[in-house]
C-alpha cells in the first residue's frame, strides 16, 4: 500500500513522468526500524493512540540531501505524534523523534532548522497533513503549506515560532509521502532561544481530548 501519493496524480499522464524528479526536489528522511516495532501487535503504527515512553521504539534516522551535501545518520527513539490525527481511521500519522544516550548520541548536532535555529536538538517532529487531506478525509483541498507558512510568517515578524521545512519520508524503504519538520516548543526550546535553563520554564499543552484540558509537559501548573 502506498501511503504518500494520491493515485489520481501518480496515474495521470500529465504528472506521472515528473514523479522521479519530484522525489529529488526536496530532502529525504529514511527511517529504518524492526517491522514488529512498527506494524506488530505492540507496534507504534498499529496502535497510534499509544503515547509516552511505553510507546517509544528504537529506530535509525538518515537525512539525504538531493544536492549531495552532508546529511546525517543517527540512532533515535520514535513515537506517533498528534491528537485527532491518531484516529485508527487515519492511514497516515506523524512522528516524534527523540535523541537519548540509550540509543546513541544524547543530542542531534546538526543545523536541521537553518543558521538561525538550534543546532543541538533533543528531538524534533515529523508532522504530516490531515486537515482537508485526501488520505484521511478524501478531500482534494489539501495544500500542505498552511501550517509552515503561518510559522514562517510569525518568525519573519520577529515573533517566537517553530521552524520547519518539507521532506520526503521513507520507512523501511516504503514511501510515506511529504512530511514537515517542526521544532517542539518545550523547555529546551525556551532555554535555547530565550535564555536561562530548561528547569526555569513551564510548558503547557492540551490533552488532545477535545475538551481543551491542559497540563504541564515541563515544569508545573503552579504559576
- How far the N terminus sits from the C terminus, by CA atoms, comes to 48 Å
Quick one: how many beta strands? 11
Low-confidence stretches: none
Average pLDDT = 91
Rg on CA atoms, Å: 18 Å
Q: What is the count of structural domains?
A: 1
Apparent shape? globular
Number of helices: 7
Task: Give the topology string: H per helix, E per strand.
Answer: HHHEHEEEEEEHHEEHEE
Sheet with most strands: 7 strands, mixed, barrel
Which class do the helix and strand fractions yield? alpha+beta
Beta-strand content? 25-35%
Helix content: 10-25%
Order of the strands making up the biggest sheet: 1-2-3-4-7-9-8
Task: Identify the notable features of this structure and list them briefly.
single chain, 223 residues, alpha+beta, 7-stranded mixed barrel, two-stranded antiparallel ribbon, 11 strands
